[in-house]
Design a protein that fits this description.
44% helix; TIM Barrel; single chain; alpha/beta; two-stranded antiparallel ribbon; 499 residues
């Protein structure tokens, strides 16, 4: 999963290009929405609601990064999450996509980011570096056979697929098995290419009509001659990705020139509409993502400089985790306004008045870039959850901190008082109502939040999100209320000699 460029960057005070200036839209190119299922995978019922939204916003396809949500069976059954989609679910997802005129493009990692596979004892010996579950060691017998089984199972449920993404980004530890720490960059490139071309040849030989996509970050380091000799340009199209607000045009130009010289005929670009501004980001800073797309439009406008390269489209990535073991990024409903802004920007060539009006009409709320908020009740699926998360993001921690900074509480209800369960009921009564009221208010919010999340996500997602963003502060409030009520009920009678 690409993430090299994900450090949080503040939106420039002035956009590189005015959002109202007319620019060339990518009308004839594919606009693909990426659904990262490594975490917070939505229920099929929610996909039924948002696929039409994707289509109405200008998307032409959905890139499904299944990971452990695919219903692997046989020898691969252990790869499945306990909440993985069933075969029936996959068929329904495809049907829903077809109704909304969306192509489904499967993505299966085949080199790096195989944590969901290599974490299991059964596949421990296939790791490139024994201590880390990140990357596959392609030199070990059985590695390619494992991938072929995974790919075959996914293709069995997607026989109509026109495109297939084989991942292959961020292959950490490549060539660093024992005794090979001094391997040259040239040898590393050959090692990488040997594996990805083997995967590519298997796919193209078995399913000749399928067009393959591959993340390009590893290709950037490999020489033109090595790329040519590998035969990869005949097997797959590179997906050039970067998520920063301001793109490095010089670097991207160099990559494109290399790919053209190498013999690639097709290329894709990848932006981000969420999940690229912090490993544990709760709220989507869509101003940053808008600028990323405006920058990509500038690159699109210069594609005539590469006459032998055909730009197929742009993938709007929506990362849910940086990797299998990292924290959740913004929930999908939270990123919907950002997705709408980015898709309409690509459709119209800028975020002009017409794009703003369409976003407002489709979402039922007004986007304000300076505040990175969507104002209004919202008509999009998940809008209620969007506003609840917004409320928590803006007010929750400050509300709890406000209670904790109460002078009476700080002076008469310290950790020491709570440890030995003593205090003057008169003093406790000066802050107790405020403490109880704050807890009650947030208990009501969290109950509503839980209900809205249940309609969209599986129980593991709800538990994880609550643990990451809510429970620490709610538990503190609950414990403090319990302690102050217990002490008050004893009417100042000490429980310990310490008191």
């Amino acid at each position: 999963m690409p993430k090299q460029s994900r450090s949080h960057t503040q939106l420039p005070s002035e956009l590189k290009r005015s959002t109202d200036d007319p620019q060339r839209p990518i009308k004839d190119l594919q606009r693909i929405v990426h659904l990262d299922l490594k975490g917070a995978a939505p229920k099929v019922e929610y996909l039924e609601q948002i696929f039409p939204l994707f289509s109405s916003l200008g998307a032409s396809a959905v890139l499904m990064e299944y990971e452990d949500m695919f219903p692997y069976d046989g020898n691969l059954t252990l790869l499945r999450s306990s909440f993985a989609y069933s075969v029936k679910d996959i068929m329904e997802i495809k049907r829903l996509a077809t109704i909304s005129n969306l192509e489904i493009i499967p993505l299966v990692q085949t080199f790096g980011h195989l944590e969901f596979v290599l974490k299991h004892d059964k596949y421990f010996d296939l790791r490139e570096v024994a201590e880390f579950p990140n990357s596959l060691n392609p030199r070990i017998p059985g590695s390619l056979a494992l991938l072929k089984d995974m790919l075959a199972q996914v293709m069995k449920l997607h026989p109509e697929a026109k495109h297939f993404h084989i991942g292959c980004d961020e292959v950490y530890g490549l060539g660093k098995v024992q005794g090979s720490n001094t391997i040259s960059q040239e040898k590393l490139g050959q090692l990488y290419l040997s594996h990805v071309t083997a995967v590519g040849m298997f796919m193209t030989k078995t399913w000749p009509s399928v067009k393959l996509l591959i993340w390009d970050d590893m290709l950037r380091k490999i020489s033109v001659n090595a790329l040519k000799e590998s035969g990869l340009p005949k097997l797959a199209a590179p997906v050039v990705w970067t998520y920063l607000p301001k793109l490095d045009f010089k670097a991207i130009s160099g990559w494109l020139s290399k790919y053209q010289e190498t013999g690639f005929k097709h290329v894709w670009f990848a932006s981000a509409f969420k999940g690229a501004s912090g490993t544990d980001q709760m709220w989507t800073p869509f101003g940053i993502h808008l600028q990323n797309h405006l920058s990509w439009l500038d690159i699109v406008g210069h594609m005539s400089s590469y006459p032998d390269l055909t730009l197929e489209g742009l993938i709007l990535t929506g990362w849910q985790r940086y990797e299998h073991f990292s924290a959740l990024c913004e929930l999908l409903p939270v990123g919907i306004p950002s997705l709408a802004v980015c898709l309409q920007t690509l459709k119209h060539g800028s975020f002009n008045d017409k794009a703003k009006a369409e976003v407002h009409h489709i979402l039922g709320c007004e986007v304000q870039l300076d505040k990175e908020l969507c104002y209004g009740s919202g008509a999009f699926a998940g809008a209620e959850l969007y506003h609840l998360v917004r409320h928590i993001h803006i007010h929750f921690k400050s509300s709890v901190d406000n209670v904790l900074q109460d002078g009476y509480l700080r002076g008469t209800f310290t950790r020491y008082h709570r440890k030995y369960s003593f205090g003057n009921p008169r003093n406790l009564g000066l802050f107790q109502p405020k403490l109880i009221r704050t807890l009650k208010e947030w208990e009501d919010v969290m109950k509503n939040l839980h209900s809205k999340m249940e309609a969209i996500f599986f129980p593991d997602t709800i538990e994880e999100w609550m643990e990451e963003n809510v429970n620490q502060h709610m538990d503190l409030l609950r414990n403090m209320v319990q302690d102050v009520q217990s002490i008050s009920q004893r009417k100042g009678r000490p429980k310990s000699q310490k008191a």
